[in-house]
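Run: sequence + adenosine monophosphate -> complex structure.
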Amino acid sequence: MQICRTVAEVRATLAGYREAGETVGLVTTMGALHEGHLTLMRNAARDHDRVVATIFVNPTQFGQKADLAHYPSDDGRDIDLLSGEKVDMVFMPEVSVIYPEGDETIVETTRMANMLHGLVRPGHFRGVATVVARLFNIVGPDAAYFGEKDYQQLQVIKRMVQDLHMPLKIHGVPTVREADGLAMSSRNVRLSAEDRAAAVCLSKALSAADKLARTGATVMALDGEVRGIINSEPRATLRAIDIVAAETLAPLEGRIAQPTAIMVSADFGGVLLIDQAVVGPA
Ligand code: AMP
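>> structure
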């Protein structure tokens, strides 16, 4: 597995792949890798001759400096994990490589970035779209793989790729979970043992809502179900429940009659966790 730190190194390696007629799948990450990330790599390897991973803790998507400072990082462990997968190259740039001095170009999905999670984290999705656009331009993959766990992020990226006519395919990958249902996240290591146990209420609430949606329940009933289960966990502070159209993220009312995304976020001892499920008719 090759490790690249500059744009020139990445481009030279990619030119070699392209000369050999090979296709390239890309997985972008912020490191602190877990089984969820590795599943994205395996999906890319299934579909493509070459897999490129990026590890870059993107400062422009963190609103609060403290959150950025606390973001877990262990490059040695990440490289070991990636070496065990069919990953051909990992791009690990310094901040100045992605954001060269004097840079001023941003990418923003103007509607989707500024709703739902974007309202509580102003600038977050602009930072995500900007870094992902830059990484796409550096690597030039045939396809890129994103987790459904970060559901709004996945829709923002799909919208950006469509709007900017970027020549690649975006694949969403179902959320990988711990045995008890907790969505895997780099943030989970920051949970105390008690909060780790309590955090399972998120996936429990989503499973209950999924069952309810199959009975033709309303948006309001789903909201009540999810709210009730999370609020009955004393260690959870519910931040948001959004029940929206799966593709456009537009608000919904009445009976669930189309693919519907339920996005939840809650705080456990200062660690904000998110989870999602797509329910309703496919
Ligand atoms: P991150 O390093 O948190 O920015 O995540 C990098 C990619 O991995 C994103 O596309 C995430 O949506 C995805 N990802 C994170 N956690 C999971 C998970 N539990 N299952 C599937 N994909 C995930």
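>> summary
Residues 186-277 form a domain with the Pantoate--beta-alanine Ligase; Chain: A,domain 2 fold (CATH 3.30.1300.10). Residues 29-30, 36-37, 39-40, 146-147, 149-150, 173, 175-176, 183-186 surround adenosine monophosphate (CB under 6 Å).
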